[in-house]
Amino acid sequence: MTASVSAADPARANGLVVEDLTVVRGGRRVLEAVAFALAPRGEAGAALVVTGPNGVGKSTLLRAVAGLAAVDSGRIRLGFADGVAEGAEAAAACHYLGHRDAIKSALTVAENLAFWRDFLAPPAAGRNRGLGDLSIDAALDAAGLLDLADLPAGLLSAGQRRRLSIARLLVVRRPVWLMDEPTSALDRASEARLTGLMRRHVDGGGLILAATHLPIDVPDAAELRLAPAPPPDADDFSDGMPA
Amino acid sequence: MSALTALFLRDMRLAVRIGGGAMMGVLFFLIVVTVFPFAVGPDLNLLSRIGPAVLWLGALLASLLGLDRLFEADRDDGALDLLVMSGRPLELVVVVKCLAHWTATGLPLVLATPFFALFLALEPKAILATMATLAVGTPALTLLGAIGAGLTVSLRRGGLLLAILVLPFTIPVLIFGVSAAGAAAVEGASFLTPFLLLSAMSLACLALAPFAAAAALRAGLD
Lengths: 243, 222
What we know:
Chain A is an alpha/beta fold and 243 residues long. Chain B has one domain. Chain B contains nine helices and no strands.
């Protein structure tokens, strides 16, 4: 699982800089010495798509950047013109769109969204970058859920739940979006709506780190391909993924 | 609206809506207190002597009920991840979640005590003393339970383990709670000394438990 896209600037973090990231889970090296830099291009942001076969550590990489996976070694920094952040502070400048949607079935769609708007802290760096700070109605409209605002969220379909978690990214402005298989459960129209939002985020100076096995239509997105590391002892991994 | 107010209101809403289980504690309390006289017989003198202890035991068991869901519900749907990376101190998140949990489950126990105390033939003085000790003591039970809830958050069906972990640590709270509540029925016994010790225990739990629970939650991530 060694990979690198471009050399990190050692002096000052510009954008999202990950150096020498190693994550060990259950005695197995899931990520080893992963390094990449996702730097904004002037006023505009940038996108990086993480690809690779199942189980190669795409989700773990995103969770490590979000501060949710125990990192064995390495450094994750986030720097913009208005400040630098590292560790938990860097994680608090990220939106995380994971497999679990953090939606409470007993609350209405609008209540779910309003809670995250009120609760999430403003980022320590990159305060004016990317898409965000939309009103509840505007965010629901952007996700195509405005008609369902007063419905209990438990009644939503899988695709609608996904759209509600996407709307969460829009109510608080955070410069980095970490998206794990963002298009899963979405139909064509919703997928187009999502890529439109991702483009607006990047155009507004935001950064996107997306893990996916489907092509995402974001212009100039770089690709970080994670490859399975050769097993240390072939016998231990005889039933593993072919490289 | 401040972030912590929003969290408190969200947890209160979730507790009182369908599936929240806010009233389960009170109903369980009612059942425990009702069953006791059947077991010990209709001797009113005996009942009023052991009444405070029965009420305290009922409240202890009722407040453990539902504590396993304190963080587990948020973990299951991924909200815990977002709470951790929200940029708000996790210790304060724990305090607010405990406060909401106590308001939804502990406070109703305190308010229901005078009615249930009638079943046990308690004197008005003893009823007041029991209410006061429960009001001061049940927050300590919730906060101690939060440590157990943090430790067992990643386990499926960790509820029983939580009770086994937490119950031994609630014994001091139980001892001083019952001795203060029972002091009204005993000639010459002091109410104030055990009551102040009970208050001190609640305050110590408030100061220490959020750090322990937050550390347990961080360790249980991923």
